[in-house]
Amino acid sequence: xxxxxxxxxxxxxxIGLGKEVRKDEQNALYxxxxxxxxxxxxxxxxxxRRMQQKILAMVAARRSSLEDxxxxxxxxxxxxxxxxxxxLMAQVNTSEFRPVAQLYAQDLQVSSQSSSQASxxxxxxxxxPGTWAFRIQVGSRLAQAFAAFHEAGQVIGNVSExxxxxSPQGQVKLIGADRFQVNTPQETFAASTGLLQFTPPELQxxxxxxxxxxxxxxxxxxxxxxxxxxxxxxxxxxGVPVGRRMPSPGEAIxxxxxxxxEQPRPYVKAPPGVYGPEVLPPALRSMFxxxxxxxxxxxxxxxxxQTALSDLALALVPCDQNAQHERIPGRPCPRCEVAPxxxxxxxxxxxxxxxxxxxxARADTPGAVQRLWQQVQDTPPPDRLPAIPDIPDPQRLPPxxxxxxxxxxxxxxxxxxxxxxxxxxxLLTLAAVMTVxxxxxxxxxxxxxxxxxxxxxxxxxxxxxxxxxxxxxxxQNTEGRxxxxxxxxxxxxxxxxxxxxxxxxEIRKRFQExxxxxARLESRYSEETVYAQYQQELLELDQxxxxxxxxxxxxxxxxxxxxxxxxxxxxxxxRQAIAPxxxxxxxxxxxxxxxxxxxxxxxxxQTDKLKVVRSDLAxxxxxxxxxxxxxxxxxxxxxxxxxxxxxxxxxxxQNSAAFRQFDQRVRRFAGxxxxxxxxxxxxxxxxxxxxxxxxxxxxxxxxxxxxx
Length: 708
What we know:
This protein is α+β, with helices and mostly antiparallel strands. Helices cover 49% and strands 9% of the residues. It has helices at residues 49-60, 64-67, 100-111, 115-118, 132-151, 215-230, 249-254, 282-291, 302-315, 334-337, 365-378, 414-441, 444-458, 468-486, 490-528, 530-551, 555-575, 588-596, 615-631, 641-671, 680-706; strands at 6-9, 14-23, 27-32, 35-43, 73-78, 84-90, 98-99, 164-166, 172-174, 182-183, 188-189, 240-241, 268-269, 317-318, 326-327. It is elongated.
């Protein structure tokens, strides 16, 4: 269904709808014409009578204290039949305010990184300061928003991180008010739904949507939100199960499985390598104990949380080791003390911790490796050589064999023979012309003039239109053939010169190859000096040493735990059913539709199955599944001892072989006299230089041969 372009407010004035901002299967958000500060939320299908009354009650309960922290309905919208079809509310700048879940996601990503990477969590990300003080400030403002609701006589009921937006300045806005519980003097309109991970234990058993909520119930959800803000996005009930399978968030809350309790629960323990309420002052830690304790009447209210967190923010001092960290006076910095989380499988499963009782592959491996490494460190390094050495002139090699055919035997070289014969023929020709002309004209002067005319024609006369060039070419060709007949060794000399040219090309090509190879060796010299070889071998030995020291913790046992944790996580996801009270924004109709597509449980939330799902709902499903993965913790103590022992034996075999290889390599390294070891590349450069000189001399000799 498409919303009408024009609606009317409660006073009958037309309200024009502008650009669509967001849309889901139930309603859509629109900009309002000529009212840039407002948004219109319009339902696509007709609302039932109960929901229409709820919207009217929300408009009547409008308070400035509520609007300071919430996009509260300010005016009802009606269709042509005067039925309530939506409401107006103040527009929240989504470019500035973003879901608090994004702040959690940043912390959860950092918690799975190494200690060195984790220091980057203090940098601003997405416009938010990355400090602990900022999260405490957000928690205080959030408690202030809850207090404003309760003091106005309202109850949120549907507590969820999806309803909380945060600005870079730490301001808080609540959205989705139509899903909250609304109280009037006459009646109560219950919250439309609720998420189990924010629902107190006393409400976990019944139907969430039908139960009336109280401020005490909101206080539980508020404490969960504050816990996640203060402690890296972790859920307070997300612990390592002891002696039982991993429960769902709702099951953990219903069974009072608070993982960070001062008096540990017998069936759950806190995850390893993380900080929790123990870093807080005793009074604030006690507030979490009461918030997650069995007596829900003892839960701290919103104003108590606001005051306690404000006092905590004022009491923080800079960390002695990292000025970007904050700590509580008299207590260590939580971010400096904490180790990366190690027992939480992610996708793919992260490294799980080895049980304390799991034996290592070699008890003295670190000591033995260190003793061998000391031998490496005691080996003196070679002297540093210059980047490119001065290669001395090589010893002269014998002349290169030219492999030419026999040189033709002749007194006069063929080129000299041709030149002499050509000029003799030319002079005889001129003499014959002069004689003939003189006999015919009976005058010596006429013969001389005739010869002069011939010379003029062959030189200056070429500029005229007569084809003198053709005549000259014909004469020269005839002259060449005649000279060839008079020089019987010409063919032998031609064969000889062709062989010289071919051999010269071969030697020139090889000479260029030698020069290129010399240049390559020169460029590699700095990398292949003895000192560079020493450093490279030292680096590889150090890497092998580090691997061996890590292997002392038994990688095979660790791999077994990772595999078991991954399988347990898959089984856990298969048990988590998709339902309206587990996924934000999921209606019963949509849940049924997902079932028909084979998306029934968290394990079914996969990219290929979500292609036909609305994009915003697909994002919610993916976020819900990611939250379950973060909630899950695997207890390696549940792995059978026989499996651990088999993995230990396999690791011992692998580590022993690696240790022997390292021992042999260290012995070779320590037994090498690096100071006196020759730099072979210098010898190669010297040999190349000698060969290049040999080929250069051969080229000079062939050039002399070709000129003969």
